[in-house]
């Protein structure tokens, strides 16, 4: 039996700008989400995470919040949001929001007041520092590139701190008044009926208070902010208070975005009294690049063994900490998984999309599906940097040029890794605006919507969409759900190098998941019994041997009476 109310959930991430437009402006909105709830439900989804819908100037597409308690008019109104909560509830779907509290927008009234007046009480809500030597306070480099310090206009030698874009000033968590204001805001949303939060960039809230420069790690003379402003000693005290003052009071579910967590910290983060219900498993999120933040620096060589070892280790470390992971193939910050993990374009097929879905869906923890993943959407190649919207793509492109890369190489890197790959509008049908809108979409539609769209896939029993619906059914199947939710995890480390496999065991029941992540077939011995619960592509099974064709997958279910 599940011990926590959210452990049986299947979560769907909506990127609201690109999901469904209802008011003809080419931008997705809340009424659009409401109109698609039955579709979401058909995937076996029981919880929706909505990327930020708060008022925002959209420099970082909503992750720059200007008013925590207002809905951005582009997305609708607070009444629309209340309707969404009610309509979702009718369908037994919970809603979680994105909680962005490491920083606000520079347009937030707190920051505007702080900028306008050095004596403003809000100055201490942010991080301002003065230097006398004409230089920034230190050499830390932000996640989106460049210094983390921005000069304050009209105040010589004064700077403010930002981990991400300069329009996203960091909040000063050392200030109890700021923390109280944040807790009150969180509780306001919980009172409204949200079930919890995906918690953005949360391990950045504590910085090293020496604010000291450190040895440069690149030719720009800067050093990554993650060394001095992420997972730093003392972050736990903030996270404990945050949890006690907010989430605990409402039994809310929380999913931490916590890049770079050491295994030794998992107990504190997701153990019995952990700061969060779960954290995302990002163990292989950036496997295809040499450097996750400065990804223009090139591709990494990786193998399916690296990939399986990454998540085997993450799962084992999390189990040892008695915690849970949120399992993801995609999100709004990553390219499409089919383009990322299947390197040869001729194999970027619906079959491979299904095989990848099989790989992560049955892991211990909660599966998160990112909109469009369930129809096998792919990256979309753009011909010029002007076609990109994403602030981090544009920054990476510019840094690459400054670093001596040619514009062709820089564009190639951006096409491969840009966050805009996942942000193209949802492909509901094959019409010009994909059924997403009847006006020009805010970001160009993908070019492959003819074959890859919901309407076509609903009518094709072999489609990726139908497969995801079947995965949802199996997840909630009375017989198998307890195994999927509570079964032990046993990685299969001695399979051929291209095969990712694991077993889940509960009592006498065994679920075996095998995925051949390769254009080559694989053969191996496996003493198996039990029936085929799901199959993708060609898999030949005898009592002792398995032969798997390229990008095939199989899920076997073994019950005691079957021996
Ligand atoms: C992580 C979010 O997922 C990303 O989209 C955003 O740019 C940064 N945090 C900053 O909020």
Automatic annotation (TrEMBL):
Keyword Transferase: no
Family matches, as SMART domains: Aamy (SM00642)
GO BP terms in the entry: oligosaccharide catabolic process
Keyword Hydrolase recorded: yes
Keywords: Glycosidase, Hydrolase
Alphabetized InterPro entries for the sequence: GH, GH13_cat_dom, O16G_dom_2
Family to which the UniProt record says this protein belongs: Belongs to the glycosyl hydrolase 13 family.
Protein name: Family 13 glycosyl hydrolase
Species in which this protein is naturally found: Weissella jogaejeotgali
């Amino acid at each position: 039996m599940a011990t926590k109310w959210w452990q049986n959930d299947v979560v769907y991430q909506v990127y609201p700008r690109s999901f469904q437009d209802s008011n003809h402006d080419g931008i997705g909105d809340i009424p659009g989400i409401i109109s698609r709830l039955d579709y979401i439900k058909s995937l076996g989804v029981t919880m929706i995470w909505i990327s930020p819908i708060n008022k925002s100037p959209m420099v970082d597409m909503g992750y720059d919040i200007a008013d925590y308690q207002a809905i951005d008019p582009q997305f609708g109104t607070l009444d629309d949001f209340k309707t969404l909560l009610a309509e979702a509830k009718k369908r037994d779907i919970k809603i979680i929001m994105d909680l962005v509290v490491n920083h606000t927008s520079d347009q937030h009234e707190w920051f505007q007041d702080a900028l306008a007046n050095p004596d403003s009480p809000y100055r201490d809500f942010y991080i301002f520092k003065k230097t006398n030597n004409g230089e920034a306070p230190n050499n830390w480099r932000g996640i989106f590139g460049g210094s983390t310090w921005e000069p304050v206009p009209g105040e010589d030698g004064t700077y403010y701190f930002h981990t991400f874009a300069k329009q996203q000033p960091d909040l000063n968590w050392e200030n109890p008044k700021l923390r109280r204001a944040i807790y009150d805001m969180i509780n306001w949303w919980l009172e409204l009926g949200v079930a919890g939060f995906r918690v953005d960039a949360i391990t950045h809230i504590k910085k090293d208070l020496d604010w000291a420069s450190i040895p440069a790690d690149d030719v720009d003379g800067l050093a990554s902010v993650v060394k001095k402003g992420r997972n730093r000693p003392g972050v736990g005290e903030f996270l404990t208070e945050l949890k006690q003052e907010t989430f605990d009071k409402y039994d809310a579910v929380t999913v931490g975005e916590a890049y770079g967590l050491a295994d030794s910290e998992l107990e504190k983060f997701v153990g019995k009294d952990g700061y969060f219900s779960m954290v995302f498993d990002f163990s292989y999120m950036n496997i295809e690049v040499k450097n996750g933040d400065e990804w223009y620096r090139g591709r990494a060589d990786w193998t399916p063994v690296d990939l399986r070892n990454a998540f085997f280790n993450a799962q084992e470390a999390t189990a040892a900490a008695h915690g849970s992971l949120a399992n993801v193939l995609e999100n709004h910050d990553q390219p499409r998984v089919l383009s990322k993990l299947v390197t040869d374009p001729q194999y970027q097929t619906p079959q491979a999309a299904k095989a990848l879905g099989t790989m992560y869906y049955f892991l211990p923890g909660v599966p998160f599906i990112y909109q469009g993943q369930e129809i096998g959407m792919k990256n979309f190649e753009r011909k010029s940097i002007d076609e990109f919207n994403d602030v981090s793509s544009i920054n990476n492109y510019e840094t690459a040029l400054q670093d001596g890369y040619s514009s062709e190489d820089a564009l190639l890197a951006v096409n491969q890794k840009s966050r805009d790959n996942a942000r193209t509008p949802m492909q509901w049908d094959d019409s010009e605006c994909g059924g997403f809108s009847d006006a020009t979409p805010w970001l160009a539609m993908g070019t492959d919507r003819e074959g890859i769209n919901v309407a076509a896939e609903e009518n094709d029993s072999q489609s990726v969409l139908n497969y995801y619906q079947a995965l949802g059914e199996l997840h909630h199947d009375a017989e198998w759900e307890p195994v999927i939710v509570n079964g032990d995890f046993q990685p299969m480390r001695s399979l051929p190098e291209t095969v990712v496999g694991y077993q889940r065991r509960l009592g006498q029941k065994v679920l075996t998941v095998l995925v051949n992540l390769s254009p080559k077939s694989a053969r191996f011995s496996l003493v198996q019994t039990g029936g085929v619960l799901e199959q993708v592509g060609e898999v030949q099974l005898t009592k002792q041997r398995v032969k798997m064709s390229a990008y095939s997958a199989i899920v076997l279910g073994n019950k005691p009476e079957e021996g």
